[in-house]
Amino acid sequence: MHQVAVDNTSSTIQETENTRLIILISCVATIGGFLFGFDSGVINGTVDGLKQTFHSTAAELGFEVASMLLGCAVGAFSAGRLGDLWGRRTVLLISSLMFLLSALGAGFATNSAFFIAARVLGGFAVGAASVMSPAYIAEVASARYRGRLATVQQIAIISGLFCAFLSNYLLAQSAGGSVGVLWLGQEAWRWMFWMMAIPSVLFLLLLLTIPESPRFLVVKKRKDEALAVLERLYGAAAAHTKFAAIDVSLSKDHHRPRLSDLVNKATGKLRPIVWIGIGLATFQQLVGINVVFYYGAVLWQAVGFSESDALLINVLSGGLSIGACIVTVFLIDRIGRKPLLWIGSTGMAVTLGLVTYAFASASLDAGGKLALSGSMGMLALVAANLYVIFFNMSWGPVMWVMLGEMFPNQIRGSGLAVAGAAQWTANFLITVTFPVLLTGIGLAGAYGLYTLAAIVSIFFVLRYVHETRGKELEQMEG
Questions:
Q1: Distance CA 7, CA 21 (A)
Q2: Which range of residues forms the domain containing residue 313?
Q3: Exposed e or buried b for every residue in 178-216, given b needs 16+ CB within 10 A?
Q4: How far apart are CA 467 and CA 234, in angstroms?
Q5: What is the DSSP letter of 270?
């Protein structure tokens, strides 16, 4: 009965849905991803400014740079739960305000403590946007193109990184360095943060024009509002049918979503789907992508680039990443999520293995710095860029797509809360342990561990991940 109802709903929706409106409101939600990327990337160009302004020690500087991550896990977990209480759109509105306050506060900071507080606030916003934007998109889009729209979220994240890198580069060039004075007598590094205020305000204003998620409204028993939104999205003929399909997918007693729903009442253990979500979120970080991002200068300098080239190289890498995500837009609803994941895992395992091999051949020069031969340096550079391409055409976007759609309606917010917190916790642990690994087992050892994680992720995908392509959210099983 349930399957037939869903299939009938799908065919009716295709005939009457307002595709243009769905695409537009999904694009508004992806601005959260853009700010996610911008806020993560802007810090790269400000390190010298922070060091000079706050007179930070190496340890203090490291904490200032990583402070945003402290708020991300809490923001992701809180957003999942608050999204069930207040609504997806409302949480995105709150995150837009946090982005704005963080941008202004970080730029105006006169001491390290104030700066860290502003960056932690930005971390809350990043964590919230990272789970709520894909959740909102999944809950308004049709199954036949939901993957493509959700993948735009990753393009937005990489675009945010790209724009942050480009903005940093242009501002530093104009001022003669990040500590040079620019407009209104303020240093360039402060303007790097203030630039984020522009997309933050745009995000806030555009969010006021989009509707709340209809699935959230059904869960909250706000029938008239839910039907009004469903009619705007899918047409009057399909609205009542879609409402009924969503309603049937909820728990029999129609209680409000809660964290305890993640536990199987019969076994007393976490539902398998929750563990799969945690696995997807964690493996995305265990393959070391943010080490390449945060500590990429180690690689570029090792293959002969000067430190002054780092910002420009980041811009070029960002453009390459966007191209890889665009490929995924065309493939994800055609070949599915699972094939992209295992292809990406295989590609990352091979390319990380090559990077490990190249670094294993390195020696130390007279100054104690890593030195590679010309051929090994080129191998490391090419393999690292291919690794970034494989990541951004697979695990980068697909993990967020699947987290937004794989959980049943009753537990989507709670599932996202746990998986999102796991993702950011893994991000933090991988980021802070890299310097320790670098000192203890060296670059080859560190990249060897990420290679091993990529290999294990192949088997995880093949054994545990189930395809969600073409399924309505009401067909998701927990």
A1: 23
A2: 2-475
A3: bbeebeeeebbbbbbbbbbbebbeebbebbeebbbbbbb
A4: 25
A5: B
In whole angstroms, give the CA distance from residue 39 to residue 36. 5
CATH number for the domain that contains residue 115: 1.20.1250.20
Question: Tokens for 138?
Answer: 């999944």
Average pLDDT score, the chain: 80
- Structural element, H or E, at residue 370: strand 370-371
Measure the N-to-C terminal CA separation of the chain; round to a whole number of Å.
18
Alpha-carbon Rg for the chain in angstroms: 23
Helices 395-405, 412-440: axis angle to 10 degrees equals: 150
Q: pLDDT band for position 207 (50/70/90)? A: very high
326-340, 356-370, 442-456: which range is least confident on average? 356-370
Confidence of residue 297 (pLDDT cuts 50, 70, 90): low
| Whether residue 7 has pLDDT greater than 80 | no
For residue 298, give both structure tokens: 């180690």
Characterize 391-405 residue by residue with b for buried, 16 or more Cβ atoms within 10 angstroms of its Cβ, and e for exposed: bbbbbbbbbbbbbbb
Per the CB < 8 A criterion, the answer to whether 67 and 123 are in contact is yes
CA 119 centroid distance within chain: 17
153 in Cβ contact with 334 (< 8 Å): no
pTM here?
0.75
The one-letter code for the residue type at 162 is F
Phi-psi group of 210: left, alpha or beta (phi > 0 → left; psi -120 to 50 → alpha; rest → beta): beta
Predicted confidence (pLDDT) per residue in 12-22, tens digit: 455 567 788 88
CA distances from 71 to 39, 67, 92, 118 (A): 12, 8, 16, 10
**Helices (DSSP H) in 42-145: which residue ranges?**
47-54, 58-86, 88-108, 112-140
Lookup result for tokens 């943060």: 193
Residue matched to tokens 């024009």: 209
pLDDT average, residue stretch 137-160: 79
**Backbone phi and psi for residue 370, each to the nearest 5 degrees, phi listed first:** -65, 135
Alpha helix locations (H) across 406-470? 412-440, 442-464
Domains in the chain, number: 1
